[in-house]
Every structure is written in structure tokens, then in C-alpha cells.
């Protein structure tokens, strides 16, 4: 029974004092941190801006180099030998039906199928970021155009439109004569690079520009609303084909790279945007820090006060327990979180202690009762043995030898059952089983026959008591047919090689094939659960524990009826348990 108790004298706990000191230290650290952060925020912001520009340049450089390599690979795939160049010329100089016949004839001659639309389609499969492919041959009017909508391509008139698109261009050079016979253009998707730049942005104000080696603007990305820098770059590139690096560095963090392929990459971040972002962060830091300190002190005061009150409740309870009141329990409704778990644990411990005291008291009573029963068990069997011996002697004196034999067999069974020994010899076990069968034979004369046979070398073999009797009992409980006159059971124990084999065989009712399969399967398992075969289960587990790992039990059906149970194990004498 739980009861309420008054608060104890433990008002100023060590935890309470420590938590108050912690609140003061934490507030001081917040102030110092705010000052340090304010001093370093600007330089850290500039460093992040510089790192962002460098990362943007590296990202654009890798992306352009990859695309440049893809473009060269595609061009090489179309012009790396004379047959492919002939196929290009034939495509541009003839209609599609003639070109199909040409490619078919060439395939028959050389074994290579050089159909230009199929080659170009493969590029779209290999490189997913291609938007279009253009080829202009010097000796032909018009140009070849392939797009995502028409991957096979077609011949178009006029000149290709390259404005506001991310095109990489390559001269088409004859591999033998080194003569330039056309131009090859590949349009790549801008969205991939633009998305990467958006994810790189740490501050508003990132701008990125990519120019080809001829000064053509391939890419322009900016987050600045004012277009002055972009206008300055475009103007200077048109006039001098050079980037205004020095002018841009005055107002921007800047990174510039000229790649091996001749591409100019320029990335800038506006210093004005960085300063504004830093000032905004500092304002939030100062205001937020002050509010945080006030809220923290208030919450700590409320939390610590409530926490200390709960600790006081637990300590009051422990004080009453130390005074000997084991019925005291902590009111778990008054505690929370880890203190609630602690209270539950203490209450459980007190309940267990109370239960242990009760169990010890009950155990002492049971122990006294056990002593009494032990005395009774020493008297009762001795009385029964003397009584049965008197009956047997009286039967002999009256000339009833058969009744005397029955009484003697029953007395032997009773003495074996009350014997406290855990092991016996195989000869004694079979002798006990033989008397068990003999009693059944006396009850049902002329209906049961039995035969027990044991090798002389196995008579002294030690094994657990009642290892074979339950198997014989199983036969009389489940297998025997008392309406027949030819019921028979035999037990043979012999040495086969290095193993001992004990065979119990009968001609009883037997069991169904399904049930036999189930028993055989479960006998192979480590843990046996033969709920319908308690005798088998008991014997198997006990002998397996005694002779393991050499012990094996087998159950097979006889023809035409009955069962055979075979127990086998290596012949190894063990000490008595």
C-alpha cells in the first residue's frame, strides 16, 4: 500500500546548487559567444564567399571539360576513317533512298553498317544531356540538324541558329589529309549547370560566365538585379575580347580560369550582398541572443525548481524506508521522465523486497513440511515391502506359487520405483522391464508373449534408470490388441561394431505413416516436442543428454504390423550421475 508523506529537510540539494551555477555559466558563455561570433562573422562570410566562387569555377570547369570530351568523342566516332567521311558526304549529297542503298551496299562490302541517323541516335542514348547536333560540310549547301524531338536528324537549309544556346563547336578534319572539311556543333543542356550553381549559392549575388575561345558567350547566370557587371563584361568582350578582371574585383569576390580547351570561366559574388547578409545575421544574433538568455534563465529557474521538488519527493521516501517503513512507496504521478523511471524502479525494488520476505517465510514452512514428508517416505516403503513379503510367504505356504511370483514381481517393481538412484545397469533395467511385462502376462494369460536377450558384454553397461521401461509401457498403452492371442514384444541388446544397439520390437497396432514421419522428423531436431509420444520424448531427451553426441533413436514400422524402436550409441562407460 502506497502512502503520501511530507517533504523532508533536503531542500537545498547539491543538484539544485549545481544547476543554478550552470545557468550563470551558460548565460556568460552565450554572451562571450555572441561577441566572438560578431567579430568573426564577417571574415568567415568572406571566406565562404571565396570558397563558393572557387567551387563554382571548379564545377563549371569539370562540366565543360566533360562536355568537350563528349563532343570530341562524338566527332571522332563520325570522322575517324574514310568510310565514315564518305558516308557523311553521301548523306548530304543525295536523297534518303539513295543513301539507304549506299549504306546497304557498303555493309555488304565491308561488313560495317554506317547509317548516319543511327549513329547520331546512339549519341543521345550514351549522353543524356545533349539537346541537338549540327554538322556543316564545306562542299554542301545547308546543314545537318538533329534534335531531341528528331534524333535521327534531317538536312536543313540556310545557316544554323546558335544564339542563346550552349554550343561547343569543333572543326571536322580529314584524318589523312588533315584538311578541314566542315564544322561540328553539339548543344548541351544548360539546366544541369544552372541547377548546380543554384545549389552552390551561399549568398545572394553569385554570377557566372562562360566564353568560348572565340569570345562567344556560352553561359550567363546571375543573381544580381543590377546588370551593370554583365553589361560591362559583354562590352569589354566585344571591344577587346578580354574580361575586365581588375574592374570587377573592386566590388566582387572573383575567380577566373582559362581552361586547356580555351574556355574562359568567370565567377563573381557581390561584396555588397555579403556585407548585407552579415549585418542581417548580426542583428538577428544580438536580438536573438538577448531573448535567448532571458528565456533560458526563466526556463532553467522553472525547470530546476520543479526538478528539485521531484528529487525531494524521492529523498523523503528513501528517508522513511531507512527508518524501517517498507510499506512506503513513491507517488509516481508526482515525478517525470528519468525521475519517473527511477521512482518506478525503486517502487518495484521495494515490492520485490516485500515479496522476497514473504517467499522466504513460505519457503521455511515448505521446508519444514518437506522434512516431515521425508520421514514419512522412509517409513511407508519399508512397511509396504514387509507387507508384500508377508503376502508372498503366505502364498508359498498355501501352495500358491503363481500368486507368490506375482507378488514378488510387483514388490520388485515397487522397490525399483522408490529407489533414489539415477542410473542402473542394462541387466537390471531389462530385469525390471521383464517383471513389468510378466505382470501384464498374468493379467491376460495366453495372450502375450515376450522375449528379452542381452549380450554378456553389456550386462554391466551403465545407463539412466527407466530408459527402456517407458518404451515398453508405450506398447501396452497404445499398441497392444487384447482381442488377439498372438501379441508379442521382444528386447535385444547387442554390440554392433563400436556401438551398442538396443532394439524393442512388437507386432502391435503400429501408427499411421503420417504420424511416423512427424515423429522421425522431430527426433532429428535438437529439441524434441512429441506431445503425443511422451515415452519417446522422455527417453530420447534423457539418453541424448547422457550419451550425446553419439546417441541416436530410430522408429520404423514393421511388416505387417507393429513398431521397432532402435536405440544406439557408442560403447563408453560413464560415471553415475
UniProtKB/TrEMBL annotation:
Transferase among keywords: yes
InterPro entries: HAMP_dom, HATPase_C_sf, HptR, Sig_transdc_His_kin_internal
Keywords: Kinase, Membrane, Phosphoprotein, Transferase, Transmembrane, Transmembrane helix
PROSITE patterns the UniProt entry points to: HAMP (PS50885)
Domain of life of the native organism: Bacteria
SUPFAM superfamilies named among the record's database cross-references: ATPase domain of HSP90 chaperone/DNA topoisomerase II/histidine kinase
GO-annotated molecular function: kinase activity
Pfam families per the UniProt record, alphabetical: His_kinase
Protein name, per record: Two-component sensor histidine kinase
Protein species of origin: Enterococcus wangshanyuanii
Source lineage: Bacteria, Bacillati, Bacillota, Bacilli, Lactobacillales
Amino acid at each position: 500500500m502506497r502512502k503520501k508523506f511530507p517533504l523532508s529537510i533536503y531542500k537545498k540539494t547539491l543538484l539544485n546548487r549545481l544547476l543554478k551555477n550552470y545557468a550563470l555559466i551558460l548565460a556568460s558563455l552565450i554572451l562571450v559567444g555572441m561577441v566572438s561570433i560578431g567579430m568573426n562573422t564577417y571574415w568567415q562570410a568572406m571566406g565562404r564567399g571565396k570558397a563558393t566562387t572557387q567551387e563554382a569555377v571548379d564545377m563549371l570547369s569539370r562540366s565543360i571539360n566533360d562536355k568537350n570530351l563528349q563532343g570530341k568523342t562524338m566527332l571522332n566516332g563520325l570522322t575517324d576513317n574514310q568510310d565514315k567521311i564518305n558516308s557523311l558526304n553521301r548523306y548530304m549529297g543525295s536523297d534518303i533512298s539513295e543513301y539507304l542503298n549506299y549504306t546497304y551496299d557498303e555493309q555488304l562490302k565491308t561488313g560495317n553498317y554506317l547509317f548516319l541517323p543511327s549513329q547520331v541516335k546512339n549519341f543521345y542514348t550514351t549522353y543524356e544531356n545533349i539537346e541537338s547536333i549540327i554538322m556543316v560540310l564545306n562542299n554542301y549547301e545547308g546543314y545537318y540538324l538533329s534534335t531531341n524531338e528528331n534524333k535521327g536528324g534531317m538536312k536543313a537549309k540556310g545557316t544554323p541558329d546558335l544564339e542563346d544556346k550552349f554550343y561547343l563547336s569543333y572543326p571536322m578534319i580529314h584524318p589523312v589529309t588533315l584538311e578541314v572539311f566542315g564544322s561540328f556543333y553539339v548543344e548541351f543542356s544548360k539546366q544541369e549547370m544552372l541547377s548546380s550553381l543554384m545549389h552552390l549559392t551561399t549568398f545572394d549575388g553569385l554570377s557566372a560566365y562562360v566564353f568560348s575561345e572565340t569570345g562567344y558567350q556560352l553561359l550567363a547566370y546571375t543573381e544580381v538585379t543590377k546588370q551593370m557587371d554583365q553589361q560591362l563584361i559583354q562590352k569589354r568582350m566585344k571591344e577587346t575580347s578580354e574580361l575586365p578582371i581588375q574592374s570587377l574585383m573592386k566590388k566582387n569576390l572573383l575567380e577566373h580560369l582559362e581552361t586547356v580547351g580555351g574556355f574562359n570561366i568567370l565567377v563573381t559574388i557581390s561584396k555588397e550582398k555579403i556585407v548585407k547578409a552579415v549585418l542581417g545575421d548580426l542583428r538577428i544574433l544580438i536580438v536573438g541572443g538577448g531573448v535567448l538568455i532571458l528565456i533560458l534563465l526563466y526556463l532553467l529557474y522553472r525547470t530546476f525548481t520543479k526538478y528539485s521538488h521531484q528529487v525531494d519527493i524521492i529523498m523523503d521516501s528513501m528517508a522513511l524506508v531507512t527508518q524501517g517503513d517498507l510499506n512506503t512507496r513513491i507517488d509516481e504521478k508526482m515525478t517525470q521522465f528519468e525521475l519517473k523511471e527511477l521512482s518506478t524502479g525503486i517502487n518495484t525494488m521495494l515490492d520485490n523486497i516485500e515479496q522476497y520476505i514473504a517467499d522466504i517465510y513460505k519457503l521455511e514452512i515448505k521446508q519444514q513440511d518437506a522434512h516431515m514428508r521425508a520421514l514419512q517416505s522412509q517409513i511407508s516403503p519399508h512397511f509396504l515391502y514387509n507387507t508384500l513379503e508377508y503376502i508372498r510367504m503366505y502364498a508359498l505356504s498355501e501352495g500358491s506359487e503363481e500368486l507368490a511370483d506375482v507378488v514378488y514381481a510387483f514388490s520388485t517393481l515397487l522397490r525399483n520405483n522408490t529407489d533414489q538412484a539415477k542410473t542402473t545397469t542394462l541387466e537390471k533395467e531389462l530385469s525390471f522391464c521383464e517383471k513389468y511385462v510378466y505382470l501384464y502376462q498374468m493379467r491376460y494369460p495366453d495372450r502375450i508373449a515376450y522375449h528379452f536377450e542381452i549380450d554378456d558384454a553389456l550386462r554391466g553397461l551403465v545407463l539412466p534408470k527407466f530408459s527402456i521401461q517407458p518404451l515398453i509401457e508405450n506398447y501396452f498403452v497404445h499398441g497392444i490388441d487384447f482381442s488377439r492371442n498372438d501379441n508379442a514384444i521382444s528386447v535385444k541388446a547387442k554390440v554392433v561394431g563400436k556401438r551398442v544397439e538396443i532394439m524393442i520390437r512388437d507386432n502391435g497396432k503400429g501408427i499411421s505413416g503420417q504420424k511416423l514421419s512427424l515423429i522421425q522428423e522431430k527426433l532429428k531436431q535438437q529439441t524434441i516436442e512429441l506431445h503425443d509420444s511422451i515415452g519417446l520424448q522422455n527417453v530420447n531427451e534423457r539418453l541424448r543428454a547422457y550419451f550425446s553426441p553419439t546417441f541416436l533413436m530410430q522408429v520404423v514400422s514393421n511388416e505387417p504390423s507393429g513398431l521397432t524402436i532402435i536405440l544406439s550409441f557408442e560403447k563408453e562407460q560413464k560415471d553415475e550421475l
